Amino acid sequence: GSEGDTRGALRTRALRAKLAAVTSTIFDELDPPTRLLMGPGPSDVPPRVLRALASPTVGHLDPYYLRVMNETRELLKRTFRTDNELTFPISATGMAGMEAAVVNLIEPGDEMIVGVNGVFGERMCDVAARAGATVHRVEAPWGTTIEPDAIRAALSANPNVKVVGIVHAETSTGAHQPLEEIGKTVREHDALFLVDAVTSLGGAPLEIDAWHVDACYSGSQKCLSCPPGLSPVTFSPRAIERIEKRTSKVQSWYLDVSMIKSYWGGERAYHHTAPVNMTYAMREALRMVHEEGLEQRWARHATHHRALRAGLEALGLRYVPERSLPMLNAVHVPAGVDDAATRKALLEQHGIEIGGGLGPFKGKAWRVGLMGASCTRRHVTTLLGALGSLLP
Ligand code: PLP
């Protein structure tokens, strides 16, 4: 009868309401926008790398994964231009690479020189001080690079310095730090040379062995065009010797490379559960680096940087650093232009992400990345067209 129908309808309505309540608490299926990532990282991730990431997960001690680990190490050694056996990705982002390098090389009371000309040199001082180092800062104004003579003078004034840390690509200012001469000086003083190559690896010349670099860390999400989550590191035999002679334990359990070494090296002793699928992605990203050729890749970054620079300057923008990196182009926000509103319009109207300024450059600089898969002619022309349409 009609009473039964009404009850049925009521029940259906109640069920629908319940279903709606449940779906609203589990949210919609992910549907991220496709951006042009032209900020300070992450950069665009090629479909091949995303497909590798979505491959079946195997156990982290599965023979298949052990092979993937070996191949990834081999590809990383080629990317760093090193024969260092202790080369592998730390299972965390670039900052963990920085911590790993510092806490393994520094014992409480050790002296360390750090070049400071931006946010990341500043962070390295903080990490070193937390590890118990006495830090000697060699400062240069933001946007400039550290002079080899300043490092030489600091080493002569502080003969007990164990480690000299420098940022190759200062992402906060776009400054491109020359390393070769500093590497020679550090070696002459028998200290260890530590380099931050988070932004430079795979996008500009970096020669770990030829430039006497003893420890270096990078990030997956910049010129390697892998998602964020891994930090490739490499330690020279001299660095390992120093680590083996430590009299105190490394302050961090997770980042103690003498333990991680047995996991990534011969014994495969369980240390932590490696992020299996991230290693797949890294391996694929590195395969793409070497398919293209490392030197060709450096040349591609240099070419598109020149084009972008010509275009930005034609729009009236001025570069911040004296010596600009190819993959990170920092320009002054022009007077009378609203920093945040312009970046918002780029993102919302054009789907392009660029970076704002950090620290003293907040609101005053834009950082345009040309990293890895985001370093193409199309990225350059699209950004120039969009920015040109937004500037007064
Ligand atoms: N060092 C430099 C030069 C960087 O640019 C970054 C990140 O932008 C880091 C270290 C830290 O890396 P992450 O943000 O991946 O932890």
Automatic annotation (TrEMBL):
GO terms for molecular function: alanine-glyoxylate transaminase activity; L-serine-pyruvate transaminase activity. Residues 57-357 form the Aminotransferase class V domain. One of its GO terms (biological process) is glycine biosynthetic process, by transamination of glyoxylate. The keyword Membrane does not apply. Keywords: Aminotransferase, Pyridoxal phosphate, Pyruvate, Transferase. Its cofactor is pyridoxal 5'-phosphate. It comes from the Bacteria. The keyword Transferase applies. Belongs to the class-V pyridoxal-phosphate-dependent aminotransferase family. This is Serine--pyruvate aminotransferase. The chain holds residues 148 to 539 of 556 of the full protein.
